[in-house]
Structures are given as structure tokens and as C-alpha cells.
Amino acid sequence: MAETYTLPQLPYAYDALEPYISAQIMELHHSKHHAAYIANLNKAISSPTAANTQSLIHFNGGGHINHSIFWKNLTPASSEDAKLSAAPSLAQAIDNEFGSFNEFKGKFSAALLGIQGSGWGWLVVNAGKLEIVTTRDQDTVPAGTTAIFGVDMWEHAYYLQYLNGKAAYVENVWNIINWRYAEGRFTGEAEGEFKELRAML
Amino acid sequence: MSIAASARSTLLRASKASSVRALGSLTAVRTKYTLPDLPYDFGALEPHISGQIMETHYTKHHQTYVNGINDAQEKFAAASTPAEQVELTSLIKFHGGGHVNHSLFWENLSPTSKAGGAPPSGKLGDAINDTWGGLDAFKGKMNAALAGIQGSGWGWLVKDNTTNKLSIITLPNQDPVNTVQYTPIIGIDAWEHAYYLQYKNVKADYFKAIWNVINWQAGEKRFSS
Predict the structure, then answer these.
(1) Whole-prediction pTM value?
(2) Which CATH number is B3-107 given?
(3) Degrees (nearest 5) of the Cα angle A140, A142, A147?
């Protein structure tokens, strides 16, 4: 019997990311959107008869994985974890790979704004090397890579606050990246996560 | 000519002009795309689509696609190698598709005080009955197709140009309907920006409500064209 997936608790209150992401967005995003991915994933797994079962598992399972990482890779701006100094080895690797943090930030932001439709932007590590990748819809990061942190570029992630002004959302999200969590993922803590679910996607 | 037909033919003309220019054999004046007139007020589709959604959707989102296609075409014309042009095709498809799709969409909506929601009569009504057994059965299938879109995209009622048969298709992002194969009859925007300010995550309610403002007269014209 396959595992039944449940909504993870947010590691902070819905309003904790204000003013950068509104409490209303956070509540809908977590309690409605993420919850729907989980409900639809469990449904697809428990009655795998529909012709599109594989596609439903891929989409909703991906949605569950992506959002689970996303909540943890955000943190209130007032937190010590929101400082780049919380990620010493990752910050060094970013400098080595992109020249400077600002170079990296510019490239990452441009990649986010270049997404055509719904999707995500990710910093990943691929065979020891940092890379920026974008994934469409709820696709997870490419096989063989590990997500360090991600930014949700679905319109539901920002629309109620920013409307079509997604560049402002992208600019603001840098204030609430959880660098301590990113450092942990960079140094091997993400290994083996969602192993069973990933194998089903 | 309808705004949508005009957008399509302008797009065709301009892309031909661009390819010709790229060959360096002819100088052509590039057509700049512009936002088509909205045939009703922003608030005219309320309560089914809010005035705020309509205003943002038209003046911001559609305008961005118009700017995007103009910008991409300029870069395409200035590109000095085929490789550079190939790089731009994704932007041309995305923004050009966004312009074509939204132009069709505005035209196939109408306030309920005008054509909005009045069921199709004539040949289109007959064809829907023949295909699905009735308008409500068709709406049910179309709404299920719309709800099943994974990510951003559109749902379309289309007519096959060879067989004249109706069918429902969905397309991701701003991919336009392949008009060699199909004639688009009615399009419904399933991007979150089309409904989120009013319906939030409950997109099923948006898909139910939009039938109250579907302009079947516009659909009939396209069907008979």
C-alpha cells in the first residue's frame, strides 16, 4: 500500500513573510493550492485506473514536492536565516560559479522572468556544480540534480499582491530566502528526500 | 474584418515580411501590432468577470504580449544569423500567440445584456447538438477539459477544417490554435490571471460562470467562415 501524503505544516505563520508575500497569498497557497495537489495525488495513487493516472501523479506529486521545498526555503526577513551569511559554503560556491552574488541574483531573476506560463526557477547542484534551471508547471528539478532553493512563478504565488507586476515579486523574494536551509541542502541534507514519490513521477 | 482575424492576418503578413527581410532581398515596412479595441466596458461582464480582472487583463497582460511580439519581431529582423533567429522563435510564438489568443477571447465574450450567454442557434447549435447531444453536455466536457489543464493554457471549441467536425482541445501557455488544421470557434483563457482576483483557487466557479458571457454570435460567424 502506497503512502498517503499529508500537508506539511508551515514553519512560520501565514503573515510572517509580509510585506513581501501577503498573508492572504500564503494562506491560499498553502491551505488550498498545496492541499489540492496532495488530495489529487492521493486520489490518483489510490485509484490508479484512469488513463491519465501517470500524468496526474507526475503533476500533483511534483506540486507536492516543489511546494514542500519552497515553504522551507522561505523565512521571515527578520530571521538570521534570511542572511546570506547563514550559507557560508553555498555563498562561496555562488561566487566561484557566477563571479559574485549580484551576478547570480541577476541571472536567477532573469530566468524567473523568462518563464513562459506556469513554472518554477531553481538553483540546483548538478555533479557538484551550481546551475540555474527553470521547470514548467509542476515538473521537479531534473533527475540527478538537487534543488538548493526554488521560487514559485505560478501566478497564484504572487497575483493577489503584485498583479501582473511579477518583477517586483521577484525582487522582493530575495528578502525572504532561507539561506540556512539552502546551505543544508547544498551540504547534503536533501539526500534521499521524497525518494518513493520521486520514483513514481 | 474582425479584430481577431485582423490580428491573425497582420501576424501572417508581418512574419512573411520579416522572413523576406531576413533574406535581404526586399525592404518592407514592419507592421507594429497594437491592442485591439475592447468591444465593451471593463465592467460590462460583471458579475461573471470583474472589472478589475478585465482592466488588468487587457491593459497589462494583453499589452505585454503586444509589446513582446513587436520587440521580438524587431530583434528577428535585426538578427544577422539564422541561429539568432531560431533563438527568437520561442518569444515570437509566445507573445504572438498571446496576442492572437486574447484578441479572439475578447471577441468571443459579450455582456449578458447583449449577446452574452444566448445559446447558439443555426448551424453551430446543430453541430454542437450532433456532437455532444446538447449545449449543457458540451459545456460539461469543455469545463472538464479546462479543469484538467496542468499549468497555464487555453481551452478551445474548434472546427476541423477538413472534416468540419467540432472538438474540444486544450493548449499550453500561449500556443495558438493551429489554423491550418482548425478554425477556433470559442476560446476560454485558463491562465490564473484570467480569474484569480475574483475566484482565487476555485477555478471551477469561473469556468461555470463564463458561459453567461460567451458570445455565441461571434462563434457562429467563425463557424460559418
Answers:
(1) 0.92
(2) 1.10.287.990
(3) 65
Q: Judge whether B2 is closer than 8 Å to chain A, CB to CB.
A: no
Are the beta carbons of B150 and A164 separated by less than 8 Å?
A: no
| pLDDT, tens digit (0-9, with 9 covering 90-100), for A36-76 | 999 999 999 998 887 899 999 999 999 999 999 999 999 99
CATH of A23-72, picked from 3.40.50.10860, 2.130.10.10, 3.30.450.20, 1.10.287.990, is: 1.10.287.990
**ipTM above 0.90 for this complex:** yes
Which residues numbered 30-59 in B keep a CB inside 8 Å of some CB on A?
A: 56
Domain with CATH 3.55.40.20 in chain B: 122-224
Do A155 and B150 lie within an 8 Å CB cutoff? no
Query: What is the C-alpha to C-alpha distance for residues A48 and A52, in angstroms, rounded to an integer?
Result: 9
Q: Domain A80-193, CATH 3.55.40.20 — does that match? A: yes
The reply to whether residue A159 touches residue B193, judged by beta carbons under 8 angstroms, is yes
- In chain B, which residues have their Cβ closer than 8 Å to the Cβ of A34? none
Angle (CA) A89-A95-A101 rounded to 5° is: 105
